[in-house]
């Protein structure tokens, strides 16, 4: 940003910092809250870090591999900044570079699983990181957005027979998540070195304290403080010759926009939860000793990385479970391609259209062969609840259904797979979501307008 | 994975782990520029020119009363790398490198002496055999010195990294380790001043994800960090630090100390070149009798 901070603002922020306050009421070591809004499409996420907003979207296509990397997929990051933010190309490139180093060069994404056919076809993932609003610390926000988007993304499953590649639509096979080894989280620290004015300020403070001396002398504590202050004065007196080089450094976590204008230096550390550094960018700014740099990592970066890591994981768990009803509707729909996967609105509007088009998409992809091996039996009763029973006859999962009219082999397999997945997931995370589970039960007791009795027999291919 | 340490603990190009490539510096190679320098680090060849301090061309720089504005432009030759690429393919890398150099020197140059003016650095990369970032920073530093611009200290850059050793070479260095003080741990060897081959090696090396996630010692064996450090050698403070690849945080300080060794040896050679150049000037003006 090219804007300038006024002198008054500068002084005010600096003075507040010296007392340990920041403009938005945080402490020096507090980061702003991160908010994730997952999009309806897989691989789309909006991340808000305070007022900074970044939207990231992953898209993919099949391409020929790069020369010399015939068994590796390609992941490309693009940062798009709207022109009104007036960012120079260098700044934008730097953000891309930091993210690229964190993900690609530290090998966070398993590129080898993105290979479809050796030397012929690999997945090309493109992560578009579009900045919506910049209120400081864009790097971290963009990095979190890229991370969440990649974690949220699902790519279509692929079958290779000989050299023939079949890309399955979502109605045939469930799309697969990406293989991410570790989550690189970047944390930027701002460094502010108070100039020699700081000494004057200290002296001023000392002067103020001297004027209030008589009051303080009454208490024993006050006396101690004075002694300390006197020591401080003598120290600064000794170093007065080098007043210019006597500096006190403040380190700010997650600097806001106004603070960014004030910073004397900035360093970005990309780390994983396991104390692995993935990238460091400290370009220019305050010179630091190597020991201080490492110390900064331990004291400021690691706790925040842990905090963000845990939050992200929780967010994904919540995202899977916060709206079971929406997902149930989707399960019963004719879901054709990933765009419809997480979008109930689209689904409702186009369910008929999709139903008609599902047969064509199936013919283009892998054709399911019906085998006489019924594994799961799903029965929808009058209340609109679906009871799923597998071969052993022990599993019984309740789902409410609003609209279900047709039966289709594709939907059945899809449904069955979802249910299998969810059964295991529910068992894992059930205790944490008991409240939601109760809600669900309440919902089930409500009489649902049932459309028709439906028996679905799923086949295993 | 191929290892680039031989059994006797030497690198592929015959260097010892803590040895930098041959440094050649030349000052004042272009008389029309205010300052210029040529810097060679092994086969890496960089030429830097400095124009300024002069009246700034942009309005923002002209208004800047606090100090000078430093700009840097980097150009790569099409033939600079082993794979012939069109120059515009380097554009993004060059832009980032230019930004890096400008910001690095913004804090090293005493900019408050040159208010409302600009200092323009121009860097030409003739050959890239790895570590161009450090070579470009060193060349720019020499050119700034040649231009007579006040700086707090030299800014000298060097890269360092870890390469994995095969078990065979591990045994060998274990024996020799007592004699020569090669710093080594868990089968990793710190090396200084990586050439292109070594850089590619650690880029393409693979490690198992399980090791990383466990964060245990065995994870160390396969991962490498590459740092490019620009330091003020006299105060030992880091001005610019870039890191790629994966490195456990506990090893960072060790890696930085390796880099510091490389920086010190480059610094002595740079300082010698500057001294030699200034003696030559004095001699030419007749201050030193011949």
From TrEMBL, chain A:
Any one GO molecular function term: mRNA 3'-UTR AU-rich region binding
Chief location category: cytoplasm
Signal peptide residues on this chain, from the entry's feature table: none
Gene Ontology CC terms, in alphabetical order: cytoplasmic exosome (RNase complex); nuclear exosome (RNase complex)
Record SUPFAM superfamilies: Ribonuclease PH domain 2-like, Ribosomal protein S5 domain 2-like
Compositionally biased region (Acidic residues): 222-231
GO-annotated biological processes: exonucleolytic trimming to generate mature 3'-end of 5.8S rRNA from tricistronic rRNA transcript (SSU-rRNA, 5.8S rRNA, LSU-rRNA); nuclear mRNA surveillance; nuclear polyadenylation-dependent rRNA catabolic process; rRNA catabolic process; TRAMP-dependent tRNA surveillance pathway; U1 snRNA 3'-end processing; U4 snRNA 3'-end processing; U5 snRNA 3'-end processing
Biased composition (Basic and acidic residues): 368-388, 435-444
Domain Exoribonuclease phosphorolytic: 32-156
Top-level taxonomic group: Eukaryota
Feature: compositional bias, Polar residues: 445-461
Alphabetized InterPro entries for the sequence: ExoRNase_PH_dom1, ExoRNase_PH_dom2_sf, Exosome_comp_Rrp42_subfam, PNPase/RNase_PH_dom_sf, Ribosomal_Su5_D2-typ_SF, Rrp45
Subcellular location: Cytoplasm; Nucleus
Pfam families: RNase_PH (PF01138)
The family this protein is said to belong to: Belongs to the RNase PH family.
Name the record gives this protein: Exoribonuclease phosphorolytic domain-containing protein
Organism: Reticulomyxa filosa
Automatic annotation (TrEMBL), chain B:
Listed InterPro entries: ExoRNase_PH_dom1, ExoRNase_PH_dom2_sf, PNPase/RNase_PH_dom_sf, Ribosomal_Su5_D2-typ_SF, RNase_PH
Pfam family, one: RNase_PH
GO molecular function, a single term: RNA binding
Gene3D superfamilies on file: GHMP Kinase, N-terminal domain
BP terms from Gene Ontology: nuclear mRNA surveillance; poly(A)-dependent snoRNA 3'-end processing; rRNA catabolic process; U4 snRNA 3'-end processing
Cellular component, GO, one term: nuclear exosome (RNase complex)
Residue ranges of domain Exoribonuclease phosphorolytic in the record: 19-149
Entry's family note: Belongs to the RNase PH family.
Protein's name according to its UniProt entry: Exoribonuclease phosphorolytic domain-containing protein
């Amino acid at each position: 940003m090219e804007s300038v901070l006024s002198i008054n603002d500068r002084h005010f922020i600096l003075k507040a910092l010296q007392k340990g306050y920041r403009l938005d009421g945080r402490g020096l070591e507090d980061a702003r809250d991160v908010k994730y809004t997952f999009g309806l499409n897989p691989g789309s996420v909006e991340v808000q870090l305070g007022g900074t907003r970044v939207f990231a979207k992953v898209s993919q296509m099949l391409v020929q591999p790069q020369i010399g990397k015939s068994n590796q997929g390609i992941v490309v990051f693009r940062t798009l900044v709207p022109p009104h933010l007036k960012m120079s190309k260098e700044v934008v490139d730097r953000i891309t570079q930091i993210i690229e180093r964190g993900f690609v060069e530290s090998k966070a994404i398993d590129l080898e699983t993105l290979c479809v056919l050796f030397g012929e076809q690999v997945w090309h993932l493109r992560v578009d990181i579009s900045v919506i609003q910049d209120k400081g610390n864009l790097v971290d926000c963009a990095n979190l957005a890229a991370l969440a988007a990649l974690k949220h993304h699902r790519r279509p499953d692929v079958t290779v027979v000989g050299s023939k590649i079949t890309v399955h639509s979502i109605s045939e096979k469930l799309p697969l998540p990406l293989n991410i080894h570790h989550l690189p989280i970047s944390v930027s620290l701002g460094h502010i070195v108070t100039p020699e004015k700081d000494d004057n300020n200290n002296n001023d403070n000392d002067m103020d304290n001297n004027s209030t001396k008589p009051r303080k002398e009454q208490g024993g504590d006050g006396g101690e403080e004075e002694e300390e202050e006197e020591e401080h004065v003598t120290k600064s007196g000794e170093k007065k010759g080098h007043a210019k080089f006597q500096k006190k450094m403040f380190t700010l976590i997650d600097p806001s926009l106004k603070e960014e204008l004030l910073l004397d230096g900035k360093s970005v550390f990309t780390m994983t939860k396991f104390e692995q550094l993935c990238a460091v960018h400290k370009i220019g700014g305050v010179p630091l000793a190597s020991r201080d740099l490492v110390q900064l990592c331990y004291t400021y970066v690691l706790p925040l990385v842990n905090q963000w890591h845990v939050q992200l994981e929780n967010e994904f768990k919540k995202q899977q479970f916060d709206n079971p009803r929406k997902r149930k509707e989707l399960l019963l729909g004719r879901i054709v391609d990933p765009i419809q996967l997480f979008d109930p609105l689209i689904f409702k509007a186009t369910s008929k259209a999709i139903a008609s088009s599902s047969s064509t998409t199936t013919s283009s992809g892998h054709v399911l062969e019906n085998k006489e091996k019924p594994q799961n039996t799903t029965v929808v009763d009058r209340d609109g609840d679906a009871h799923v029973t597998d071969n052993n006859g022990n599993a019984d999962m309740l789902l409410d259904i609003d609209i279900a009219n047709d039966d289709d082999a594709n939907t059945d397999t899809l449904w069955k797979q979802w249910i299998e997945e969810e059964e295991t997931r529910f068992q894992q995370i059930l205790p944490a979501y008991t409240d939601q589970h109760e809600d669900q039960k309440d919902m089930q007791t409500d009489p649902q307008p049932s459309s028709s009795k439906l028996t679905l027999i799923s086949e295993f291919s | 994975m191929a290892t680039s340490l031989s059994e006797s603990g030497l690198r592929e190009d015959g260097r010892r782990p803590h040895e930098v490539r041959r440094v050649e510096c030349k000052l004042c190679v272009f008389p029309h520029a205010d300052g210029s320098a040529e810097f060679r680090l092994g086969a890496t060849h960089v030429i830097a020119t400095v124009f300024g301090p002069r009246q700034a061309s942009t309005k923002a720089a002209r208004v800047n009363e606090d100090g000078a504005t430093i700009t840097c432009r980097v150009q790569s030759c099409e033939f600079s790398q082993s794979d012939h690429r069109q120059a515009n393919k380097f554009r993004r890398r060059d832009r980032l490198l230019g930004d890096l150099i400008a910001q690095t020197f913004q804090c090293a140059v005493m900019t408050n002496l040159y208010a409302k003016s600009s200092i323009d650095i121009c860097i030409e990369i003739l050959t890239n055999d790895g570590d161009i970032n450090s070579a470009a920073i060193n060349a720019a530093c020499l050119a700034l010195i040649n231009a007579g611009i006040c700086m707090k200290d030299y800014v000298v850059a060097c890269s360092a990294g870890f390469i994995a050793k095969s078990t065979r070479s591990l045994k060998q260095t274990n024996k020799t380790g007592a004699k020569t003080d090669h710093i080594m741990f868990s089968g990793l060897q710190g090396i200084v001043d990586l050439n292109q081959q070594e850089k590619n090696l650690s880029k393409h090396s693979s490690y198992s994800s399980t090791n990383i996630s466990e964060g245990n010692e065995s994870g160390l064996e396969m991962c490498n960090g590459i740092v490019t450090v620009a330091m003020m050698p006299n105060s030992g403070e880091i001005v610019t630090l870039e890191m790629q690849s994966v490195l456990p945080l506990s090893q960072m300080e060790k890696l930085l100390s390796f880099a510091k060794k490389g920086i010190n040896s480059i610094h002595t050679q740079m300082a010698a070149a500057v001294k030699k150049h200034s003696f030559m000037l004095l001699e030419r003006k007749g201050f030193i009798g011949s």
